[in-house]
Amino acid sequence: MAAFPDSRLRRLRRTPGLRKAFAETRLAPEDLIAPLFVKEGLTEPVPIASMPGQYQHGLESLVKEARELVELGIAGVLLFGIPAEKDPAGTQAWSPSGISQQAIAAVKDELGDDSLVIADLCLCEYTDHGHCGILAGTSVDNDPTLEAYGRIAVAQAHAGADLVAPSGMMDGQVGAIREALDDAGFPELPILAYAAKYASCFYGPFREAAEGAPRFGDRRAYQQDPANVEEAIREVGLDIDEGADAVMVKPALGYLDVLRAVKQEFAYPTVAYNVSGEYAMLVAAAERGWIDERQATLETLTSIRRAGADLVITYHARKAAEWLR
Ligand code: PBG
Predict the structure, then answer these.
(1) Alpha-carbon distance 171 to 237, whole Å?
(2) What is the C-alpha to C-alpha distance for residues 124 and 211, in angstroms, rounded to an integer?
(3) Cα radius of gyration (the chain)
(4) How confident is the model at residue 8, as a pLDDT?
(5) What sign has the CA pseudo-torsion 240, 245, 246, 249?
(6) Residue in 37, 50, 122 to alter for ligand 1 test, most ligand atoms within 8 A of Cβ
(7) Confidence (pLDDT) at 265
(8) Burial class (CB within 10 angstroms; exposed 0-12, middle 13-18, buried 19+) of 30
(9) What are the C-alpha distances in Å from 303 to residues 231, 262, 310?
(10) What is the b/e burial string over 69-106, where b = at least 16 CB atoms within 10 angstroms of the residue's CB?
(11) How far apart are CA 277 and CA 74, in angstroms?
(12) Which residues pair with 311 in a beta bridge?
């Protein structure tokens, strides 16, 4: 590299045209996925207090929202269902007539094959105790939970999901789901694995939105310790060995190093989840006039892409898509 003054890095920064032409990272609506919540029995959308601009939808407004989002160019939606009745086993998660299956079918019917309907696959929204699996005493019992996940995957496949996205962080979940899908005649349905998912306080607002907070304890016995990155590599490696087609790192902002490490190590389709608390934090500061929401959002999303994300799941999808057009 030439030294100053032959080299002047400011030359390529002089005009908007130069900056745009030489940008290393691009951000477009098609890089974004919007999480959406649907609650059984709602006829009107209900605002989520800790996530301004986000709603619990009924089926009708869910379909409308999904349609508007894909018209803005985003890649697809990630669906979370909230059933009217919860029980210890979370049976509504795999009921063919459960709210999630109804929502998947309705949105898929509306969107067709040009955009994605991704089904979050977990039990915490469906269990009365709020944990992500079947309990044995006060701890989540790994292997019986795998059977339940298999049943959920098959129900979501029958409903028409384009991808299933297991987020429970049980050991062996991707393999169990792959086997269940193959056995049920869905060998071509891809799995987007929440592979490196941390036990993060930044899921707080989501738990209000999805009504899935644990009634006791926390999720640290199954989700990852924020201190660890080598373990994330092992988690992702195992999921890929078990048949994951794409992998996810979650949350995004405190974990950009993990994202980078995962992308570099595996060169796999990699998704980052810019989670509820990250959204809430930014929107709250913007509401106070302390940061500019538009600039902060686009800078954040660009950074997540720069770190290695092919796709970003974000509650800012709608606004970002509008700003990027
Ligand atoms: C369900 C699930 C959670 C999130 C996505 N899927 C909550 C959790 O693990 O407690 C969090 C998403 C967000 O905060 O935006 N297992």
Answers:
(1) 12
(2) 9
(3) 20
(4) 98
(5) negative
(6) 122
(7) 98
(8) middle
(9) 23, 16, 12
(10) bbebbbbbbbbbbbbeebeebbbbbbbeebbbbbbbbb
(11) 21
(12) 271
- In this structure, are strands 139-140 and 135-136 parallel, antiparallel, or unpaired? antiparallel
- Following DSSP, what letter does each residue of 108-136 receive, concatenated? HHHHTTSSEEEEEE-STTTBTT--SS-EE
Mutate to test the pocket of ligand 1, among 121, 125, 167 (most ligand atoms within 8 A of CB): 167
Residue 24 CA to ligand 1 center (angstroms) comes to 31
Give how far the C-alpha of residue 297 lies from the chain's centroid of Cα atoms, to the nearest Å. 17
Establish if 14 belongs to a structural domain: no
Helix (H, G, I), strand (E, B) or coil at 29: helix
Number of domains into which the chain is organized: 1
Nearest CA to ligand 1 atom 14: 203
Predicted confidence at residue 200, as pLDDT, reads 98
In a domain, 159, yes or no: yes
Nearest to 124 by CA among 212, 56, 209: 212
Q: Is 39 a catalytic residue?
A: no
Residue 1 resides in a domain = no
Task: Give pLDDT < 70 ranges for the chain.
Answer: none
Check if 222 has its Cβ closer than 6 Å to any atom of ligand 1.
no
pLDDT of residue 113: 97
In which domain, by residue range, is 55 found?
24-324
Is residue 8 domain-resident?
no
Measured from the Cα of 125, ligand 1's closest atom is 1
Please report, for the domain that includes residue 65, its CATH number. 3.20.20.70
Q: Give the integer Cα–Cα distance in Å for 125 and 314.
A: 19
Whether 108 sits among the annotated catalytic residues: the reply is no
| Ligand 1 center–CA 167 separation, angstroms | 7
> Is-above-0.90 flag for pTM?
yes
Using a 6 Å cutoff on CB, does residue 62 contact ligand 1?
no
Q: What is the pLDDT of residue 271?
A: 99
**Buried b vs exposed e over 224-263: b needs ≥16 C-beta within 10 Å?**
bebeeeeebbebbbbbbebbbbbbbbbbbbebbebbbbbb
